[in-house]
Design brief:
- The protein is of the alpha/beta class.
- It has nine helices and seven strands, in the order αβαβαββαβαββαααα.
- The longest helix is centred in the last third of the chain and has 23 residues.
- Helix content is 43%, strand content 21%.
- Helix 4 packs parallel to helix 5 and helix 8 runs antiparallel to helix 9.
- It holds the Pfam family TrmK.
- Keywords: Methyltransferase, Transferase.
- One of its GO terms (molecular function) is tRNA (adenine(22)-N1)-methyltransferase activity.
């Protein structure tokens, strides 16, 4: 018997948000470890594993074959949501990319999302841009997680369609988009670790911008506002 797929800590956490019996797409699947892990643990789950690069696509095909999951997982070569048809999947996973790229994948493939009721994302940077996209397009953030692995801190965001209870406070939306509305309510040691580091980085950026011969006053003001938010968040540590 083939043992289960060995997943990273972050992808194991992502997998917990894919519901039982899911019909989902994993975009940017790489070696298809995530869909294989899910389908090995859930016989009813079905997946489309999408990959834009031929090398990882071939590796994904091999992984699916190795675990005997060809009836449960279809590996497709293509860019973003080009690999799925409209109303073909109910859940969507996009993990391990920058926030701007994830947002562009969602935006470019918005016509494919009509039947998607849950999106799980794990951006490596700039989670805020995805939260903004969810807010604009009727997906409600219902779960967030933050974790550290191999010296990196990752955020995971789960958004559901048709969930009426907004996690946002009208007076704090800008701050909550940055920090995560649910992460702000349940601040862990990892949350404080991340934002202490981000505070230090942003302070350095502002110091450098202040020394420039031509100053971008508007951007400096925005960064100083965000720095103030970070100080306020860290003061609760």
């Amino acid at each position: 018997m083939i043992e289960t797929v060995k997943l990273s800590k972050r992808l194991k956490k992502v997998a917990t948000y894919v519901p039982e019996g899911a019909l989902f797409a994993d975009i940017g699947t790489d070696h298809a470890y995530l869909p294989c892990y899910i389908c090995l643990h859930d016989e009813k789950a079905r997946a489309i594993a999408g990959e834009v690069n031929e090398g990882p696509f071939n590796s994904a095909v091999e992984t699916v074959h190795l675990y005997g999951l060809s009836d449960s997982i279809e590996v497709r070569l293509g860019n973003g949501l080009e690999v799925v048809e409209n109303e073909e999947v109910n859940q969507l996973v996009i993990a391990g990319m920058g926030g701007a790229l994830i947002r562009s994948i969602l935006e470019d493939g918005i016509s494919k999302l009509n039947a998607v009721n849950r999106i799980v994302v794990q951006p490596n940077i700039d989670a805020r841009t995805i939260r903004k996209w969810f807010l604009i397009h009727g997906f409600t953030v219902t779960n967030e997680a933050i974790l550290e692995e191999n010296g990196h801190i990752y955020e995971i965001i789960v958004a559901d369609r048709g969930e009426n209870r907004s996690p946002y406070d009208a007076s704090l939306v800008d701050q909550q988009l940055l920090f995560g509305p649910l992460l702000m309510k349940n601040r862990t040691a990892t949350f404080y670790q991340k934002w202490k580091h981000e505070h230090e980085k942003l302070q350095t950026v502002i110091n450098q911008m202040d020394k420039a011969k031509v100053k971008d006053i508007q951007k400096i003001n925005q960064f100083e506002k965000e720095l103030k938010w970070m100080k306020e968040v860290l003061s609760d540590d």
